[in-house]
Design a protein that fits this description.
By secondary structure, this protein is an alpha/beta fold. The chain has two domains: 1-103 and 277-368, Isopropylmalate Dehydrogenase, CATH 3.40.718; 119-260, Isopropylmalate Dehydrogenase (3-Layer(aba) Sandwich), CATH 3.40.718. The protein is 42% helix and 18% strand. It contains eleven helices and twelve strands. A ten-stranded mixed beta sheet has the order 2-1-3-12-11-4-5-10-8-9, with helices on both faces. Strands 6-7 form a two-stranded antiparallel sheet. It is globular. The two termini are 23 Å apart. The structure holds adenosine-5'-triphosphate. Residues 14, 77, 90, 264-265, 283-286, 288, 295-296, 299, 342, 344 line the site of adenosine-5'-triphosphate (ATP). Belongs to the isocitrate and isopropylmalate dehydrogenases family. LeuB type 1 subfamily. It holds the Pfam family Iso_dh. Residues 5-358 form the Isopropylmalate dehydrogenase-like domain. Its cofactor is Mg(2+); Mn(2+).
Length: 368
């Protein structure tokens, strides 16, 4: 049996309560699933720590994140905690952490669970696609750089490399092989989302995409401009399976995707590198509801499920893969039943009630 050590970063705002809820679920899972062993080290990091000490992630915490088998983060940042130049501390910490961990591909599933509020009048054959976002370069490569000339001109630079684009494209095709294809007809498909008609950098992104696609003859591929994709995601999202794109496009389209299938409270994410991986909900710290037991913990709980899936895949550990599925099924069941949901999903339940409801589903699963 492999024991996995997880570094936990509960963070700020609603982060700590979503993390507590996720621990309730993970502790129940470990208690009921023989062969699964998880240990946790929890660290303070983020805006509140910056307010107290002037740093967001101390060196020993970063070291522990690098040493752990995986990192589970809840949410970082507070609008009133700013650096001397007026910017929030969250981007500085997150871009730094991503670079340190080398997590090059961010995965955001856009999946409509039965019972979740869908933004579309008619969800057709269902919504189940994945946004794969290049996570280290693109427009974010200039983070911390860029230039400003007086009061008139400012620039940031888009960086696209063959290595970075091949890496994320390769990741997208391998992910497509593990999935069941698009809801429309079960066909696997990887779609490059770009603006190749306008920018040289993104024409290059598309060129490298198709170079890599040639190595996966079993998975059909195509390319769509990002503006058209924003339309198709709303008009016929069931046509898509895996979408791969530049960093900034992924940042935007994954929030659009979350909006289609119930909002940020249901949006998990995984950021994957060759050695390390970081898991966190797509939402921020929602300070106006923090500490009130109102936050939806399901995005963090689903991120923990993605973490177990990644660990299981990496270590060829069937128990861990099963654990991931058990959590996702329990979450799906709680959403389907609909009587224990937080206000963002139209319910009246508290964060801790939802955690307990998911944990109770796990108990039922191990009893049957
Ligand atoms: P960031 O820039 O850090 O991503 P943001 O300003 O985009 O943060 P979020 O904190 O993600 O904003 O949240 C936007 C709004 O969505 C919140 O104000 C809150 O109303 C709602 N929200 C986000 N996450 C949750 C959640 N887990 N449960 C309930 N509501 C949420």
């Amino acid at each position: 049996m492999t024991a996995y050590r997880i570094a936990l970063l509960p963070g700020d705002g609603i982060g700590p309560e979503c993390m507590r809820a996720t621990r309730t679920v993970l502790d129940q899972l470990v208690a009921g699933l023989p062969g699964l062993e998880l240990s946790f080290t929890s660290h303070q990091a983020g805006a509140e720590l910056y307010r107290q000490t002037g740093e967001t992630i101390p060196a020993d915490v970063l070291r522990d994140c690098l040493d752990a088998d995986a990192v589970l983060l809840s949410a970082i940042g507070l609008p009133d905690v700013r650096q001397p130049d007026g910017t929030e501390v969250q981007p500085m910490m997150m871009v730094g952490l991503r670079r340190a961990l080398g997590v090059h591909s961010a995965v955001r599933p856009v999946k409509l669970y039965p019972g979740a509020p869908c933004a579309l009048r008619d969800a057709g054959p269902g919504i189940d696609f994945v946004v794969v976002r290049e996570n280290l370069e693109g427009l974010f490569a200039s983070f911390g750089g860029g230039s400003r000339v007086g009061e008139e001109v400012a620039t940031d630079t888009m960086v696209i490399t063959r290595q970075g684009t091949s890496r994320v494209t390769d990741f997208a095709f391998r992910l497509a092989r593990r999935r069941n294809g698009r809801p429309l007809d079960g066909q696997r498909r990887v779609t490059c989302v770009d603006k190749a008609n306008v920018f040289r950098s993104l024409a290059f992104f598309r060129q490298v995409f198709f170079d890599v696609a040639g190595q996966y003859p079993d998975v059909p591929s195509d390319a769509v401009y990002v503006d058209a994709m924003s339309l198709y995601m709303v008009q016929r999202p069931w046509d898509f399976d895996v979408l791969v794109m530049e960093n900034q496009f992924g940042d935007i389209l994954s929030d659009l995707g979350a909006g289609l299938v119930g909002g940020l409270g249901l949006g998990p994410s995984a950021e994957i590198g060759d050695e390390h991986a970081l898991f966190q909900p797509s939402h921020g710290t929602a300070p106006q509801i923090a500490g009130k037991n109102l936050a939806n913990p399901l995005a963090t709980i689903l991120s923990a499920s993605m973490m177990l899936d990644w660990l299981g895949d990496k270590h060829r550990d069937a128990v861990c893969l099963e654990a991931a599925m058990i959590i996702e099924n329990a979450v799906a069941q709680v959403i389907r039943q609909g009587d224990c949901l937080t206000p963002d999903l139209g319910g009246k339940a508290g964060t801790s009630d939802v955690a307990q409801a998911v944990a109770d589903q796990l108990k039922l699963a191990s009893a049957t």
